[in-house]
Each structure stands twice: as structure tokens, then as C-alpha cells.
Amino acid sequence: MKIILASKSGVRKKILNENQITCDVKPSNIDENDVKESLLSEGANPEIISKNLAELKANKVSQKNPDKIVLGADSVIDLKGELISKPKDRKEALKILEKLNGKQHQLISSVCISKNGSMIWNYTDASSLTMKKLNFDEIKAYLEKINDKDLYAYGVYQIEADGRSLFSKIEGDENSIMGLPVKQIKEYLNLL
Fold first, then answer.
1. Catalytic positions, please?
2. pTM score, two decimals?
3. How many angstroms separate the CA atoms of 25 and 42, rounded?
4. CB-based contacts of 132, cutoff 8 Å, min separation 6
5. Can you tell me the distance from the alpha carbon of 170 to that of 10, in angstroms, rounded to the nearest whole number?
6. What is the CATH number of domain 2-191?
7. What is the full per-residue pLDDT of the chain (192 aa) written as tens digits?
């Protein structure tokens, strides 16, 4: 089965390919920050924000590609109810890591499958990650290893790369943590 991935995430495309799901990549290019701000002003929690973003991405691309199966995805960090987004710059990345330092947080990954401009299926998974207590120099040294492109695309840690070393405890599905709960996606696609 061939689907459209409404995301420019190289990691998500790789996960799909590794699971024999071929896809064309057509990013939605929605303004995630505007959507987040709007939802936060309405009192939405991080899980609702993640679900809404995944659906918006899938639906937008689906409207332009009728009769195609479109997959949208989004991941956010939930630190005790506070939404942590991707950093805009290295200074913000440092602040995020200092905020997560020594604490447990939830990584919420949502996926949505749309057809003809409407959602036909969605799934949300939460993983629990506990960051080691690191000193300032250790955090800075970690950030220096990440190139700008990856930092702004995937956030402050990439669990599939050096990010694993930041954590003392990781509970959850590794593919979900990387942004795509592929087991559930495959189960649904097999029903189509």
C-alpha cells in the first residue's frame, strides 16, 4: 500500500519504509505555532494539541489529494501539563533542556489518517522519559553535537541518535518516541 506522509520528517519516512509502507512525502506546511497558541488560549492540554496538529496536517494534504490515504503526525512534550515545543534557536534549546533536567516528562505522539479531506482514524500514544540530572557543561556539550537542521526539525533530543544518553529511564514504544506509533498504523492499514 502506498500512502502520503504529510510531514517532512526523515525519521517518520524511515520508520514507514522499514515497515514496508511506501509513501510520498507532501508536507502540510501549516503554521504549528499559530495553532498551538490558539489551542493554548482555549485551555487545551498537550495531548489535545498533538491530536489537533496531526489531524490538521493530514486533512490539509488530503484535501489536495482526493482518494489517497494521508498520514499526519505530531509529537509534543508534556512537562506536568506544560507544553514544550521545538526550540526556535539554540538559546531556547538550552532553556528547554535545563527545564527537563532531572525530571520525568511525557512525550505524546499522535497520528491521523485522512481520506478525501476528513479524518478516518487516529491514535495517540504517550511515553514516559526521565532525564538524568546533568550539569550545565554536560547540557551544552550535548547541544553542540546536534546540527541546526536536526535541532529545529526534531526538538532538543533525538532518541534514535545521541539523545538516548540524556535519559536514566525510558518507558514506551521506541517508534512512538521517534514520532510514529507504527504498530498501530500497520494494524489499521491492514484493515483497509
1. 74
2. 0.91
3. 32
4. 102, 166, 167, 168
5. 22
6. 3.90.950.10
7. 789 999 988 889 999 999 999 999 999 999 998 999 999 999 999 999 999 999 999 999 999 999 999 999 999 999 999 999 888 889 999 999 999 999 999 999 999 999 999 999 999 999 999 999 999 999 999 999 888 877 776 677 878 778 888 999 999 999 999 889 999 999 999 876
